[in-house]
From TrEMBL:
Gene responsible for this protein: metA
Active site: 142 (acyl-thioester intermediate), 235 (proton acceptor), 237
Function noted in UniProt: Transfers an acetyl group from acetyl-CoA to L-homoserine, forming acetyl-L-homoserine.
The organism's place on the tree of life at top rank: Bacteria
One of the protein's GO biological processes: L-methionine biosynthetic process from homoserine via O-succinyl-L-homoserine and cystathionine
Positions bound to substrate: 163, 192, 249
One Pfam family recorded for the sequence: HTS
Species, as recorded: Bacillus yapensis
Entry keyword set: Acyltransferase, Amino-acid biosynthesis, Cytoplasm, Methionine biosynthesis, Transferase
Feature type site, description Important for substrate specificity: 192
Protein name, UniProt field: Homoserine O-acetyltransferase
Similarity field: Belongs to the MetA family.
Pathway listed: Amino-acid biosynthesis; L-methionine biosynthesis via de novo pathway; O-acetyl-L-homoserine from L-homoserine: step 1/1
């Protein structure tokens, strides 16, 4: 089944070229089915790219999904046109009276700031508080995961000696968890961040389960015991070229940045990197939509 997105959303053309099943409101309204309503809080600067990356993964399941995009009212985007935001995004004041089956909170390039120094932190905490009663399950990615760990569970972040950038091997810590159903014993995922969370504190916390980790990149996938919050510290949604483009961008800015690890073939930045995480990215999003959203959400919200 497809995802339903706005007819003029730029990501639509990208997804159609990749044979992702999508539909607009005209066709969706003719189907007698209860679709899942997913709200995506997109905190990334290049919002159109992130839209395509996340929608690609949501569009590969047997469920019909209605997508809405949310932006922060207390933050002015510098890299996405206001026309795009006005046409495809809404703000929290317009949706806080509604119930959603699922929510996705993306990463954001603010990890070097203390959480309270982020200009939209107060608004974000209001949204995260609202989500506990009005969203069946929320998927938090990268900085979004760190924000959830800090706000909901009191686990902070710390600065790394150098940026964690590359594609790392991970193992499954808890094979009984439905989120990792079908995962290989070892799988790969990209990371791109300057901060980390204390894996020991996560293991000791009674309300969180560590589901997967990397010997090199640390804690990766975590779940609240009730499945209301899923936290992922990496970027399974990334395209094959994303880390390469970030590396080129940082070098152009004159940053002291190292080559992404285990990424370029033979560590040659002139060679095209391979996507070694695509199947597990699709599997994780499919498992989340099925087991944590579809199987848990009421047919009619009271």
């Amino acid at each position: 089944m497809p995802i339903k997105i706005p007819k003029l959303l730029p990501a639509r053309e990208i997804l159609e070229e990749e044979n992702i099943f999508i539909m607009d409101e005209t066709r969706a309204n003719t189907q007698d089915i209860r679709p899942l309503n997913i709200i995506i809080l997109n905190l990334m600067p290049e919002k159109e790219r992130t839209e395509a990356q996340v929608l690609r993964l949501l569009g590969n399941t047997p469920l019909q999904v209605n997508i809405s995009f949310l932006q922060m009212a207390t933050h002015q985007s510098k890299t996405t046109s206001q026309l795009h935001l006005d046409q495809f995004y809404t703000t929290f004041s317009n949706i806080k009276h509604r119930k959603f089956d699922g929510m996705i909170v993306t990463g954001a390039p603010v990890e070097m700031l203390a959480f309270e120094e982020v200009d939209y932190w107060e608004e974000l905490t209001e949204i995260m508080n609202w989500s506990t009663d009005n969203v069946t399950s929320t998927l938090h990615i990268c900085w979004g995961a760190q924000a959830a760990l800090y706000h909901h569970f009191g686990i902070g972040k710390f600065e790394l000696p150098r940026k964690c950038s590359g594609v790392f091997s991970h193992i499954v810590q808890d094979r009984s968890e439905k989120l990792l159903r079908g995962f290989d014993d070892e799988f790969y995922a990209p990371h791109s961040r300057y901060t980390d969370v204390d894996q020991r504190k996560i293991n000791e916390h009674k309300e969180i389960k560590l589901l997967s980790y990397s010997e090199e990149a640390g804690a990766f996938i975590m779940s609240a015991n009730n499945g209301k919050q899923i936290m992922i510290t990496g970027h399974l949604e990334y395209d094959a070229s994303t880390l390469s483009e970030e590396y080129s961008r940082d070098r152009h800015r004159g940053l002291d940045i190292h080559l992404p690890e285990h990424y370029f073939p033979k560590n040659d930045p002139n060679r095209q990197p391979l996507n070694r995480w695509r199947s597990h990215a699709h599997l994780l999003f499919s498992n989340w939509l099925n087991y944590y959203v579809y199987q848990e959400t009421p047919y009619e919200w009271e």
